[in-house]
Design the sequence.
């Protein structure tokens, strides 16, 4: 995807998001010189680690020189064994007569180029060079073997779709601790954005997420993060615009579902009454479960999560069948919106288990 058809390239979220000149953006650093690989050339201070270093990364059309090559039996030690001590090397064993091999080649090359230096790809024609494949016990092709530190560590056979190959590359790179260059810059940027978001700085976090999306439009962490920040900033409409660009398959991602749940809850709260009047109703009649339910919804909207959970649990304790088990169903929706690891979710699940199985 190029800048012409990248929905984030034009920054549809306003000047506050994803522009290197936005306030608060230029001071954020990701790749310090101290963390650069030994022997790497030093970068200018003006560019080292800046958010602008993300520019151009993640474009599937941008091949990096030297990532893909053919090898021979004589060169295998240098091209694979020795090189894998610097970074993971994928070896694609193939043959000219193999149809699935021809199908795999453009897909794996695209995935390796998109990884921007995370791994290298070495191709070996087993018709011309059968010895290595025989030593590794390869009996069918295409076969791809990942080498790390001079040893085969993982692999797959057959012509997989590009999404699966990308997952394989990510797995190998992370297990080898070899994420570097553009991929490292993106991951560090996302980590910084998540930390800002967690510390109540959604505006600055949104800038970083949007910058990542300008370069990697389908990054799920950035998509969910930007939508979540926009929600926190009260711009629900733009949060929906971000989620509208997510494919049906991507909507199954837990982070995406969490933001969608928050939006759904916000829509429900918009139709609720005055909290003072609801509390008065509840004081007059402790069995007014609808009033207690609406107060729980409002408490959640005000980020009083423990209070919201306790209100729904109180309804369940008094009348489990109320509104077709509506209190429990709503509580589960809260858990999904808050996230599995949220303290309120963990506490609420414990209380729910105690109530259900006491």
Sequence:
């Amino acid at each position: 995807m190029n800048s012409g058809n990248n929905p984030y390239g034009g920054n549809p979220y306003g000047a506050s998001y994803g522009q290197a000149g936005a306030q608060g953006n230029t001071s954020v650093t990701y790749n310090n010189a101290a963390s650069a690989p030994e022997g790497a050339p030093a970068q200018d201070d003006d560019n080292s680690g800046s958010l602008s270093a993300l520019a151009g990364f993640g474009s599937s059309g941008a091949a990096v020189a030297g990532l893909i090559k053919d090898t021979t039996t004589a060169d295998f030690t240098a091209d694979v064994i020795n090189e894998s001590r610097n970074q993971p090397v994928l070896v694609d064993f193939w043959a000219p007569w193999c149809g699935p091999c021809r199908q795999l080649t453009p897909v794996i090359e695209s995935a390796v180029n998109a990884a921007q230096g995370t791994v290298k790809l070495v191709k070996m024609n087993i018709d011309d060079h059968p010895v290595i494949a025989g030593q590794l016990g390869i009996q069918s092709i295409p076969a791809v073997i990942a080498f790390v530190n001079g040893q085969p560590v993982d692999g797959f056979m057959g012509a997989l779709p590009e999404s699966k190959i990308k997952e394989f590359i990510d797995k190998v790179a992370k297990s080898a601790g070899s994420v570097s260059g553009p991929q490292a810059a993106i991951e560090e940027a996302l980590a910084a954005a998540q930390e800002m978001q967690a510390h109540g700085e959604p505006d600055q976090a949104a800038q970083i997420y949007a910058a990542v999306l300008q370069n990697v439009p389908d990054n799920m962490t950035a998509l969910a993060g930007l939508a979540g920040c926009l929600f926190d900033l009260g711009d629900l409409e733009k949060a929906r615009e971000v989620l509208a660009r997510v494919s049906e398959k991507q909507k199954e991602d837990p982070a995406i579902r969490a933001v969608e749940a928050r939006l759904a809850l916000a829509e429900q709260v918009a139709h609720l009454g005055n909290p003072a009047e609801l509390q008065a109703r509840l004081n007059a009649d402790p069995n007014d479960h609808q009033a207690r339910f609406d107060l729980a919804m409002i408490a959640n909207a005000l980020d009083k999560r423990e209070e919201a959970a306790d209100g729904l649990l109180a309804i369940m304790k008094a009348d489990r069948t109320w509104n077709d088990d509506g209190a429990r169903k709503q509580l589960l929706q809260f858990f999904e919106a808050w996230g599995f690891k949220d303290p309120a979710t963990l506490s609420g699940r414990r209380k729910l288990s105690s109530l259900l199985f006491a």
The chain is about 50% helix and 10% strand.
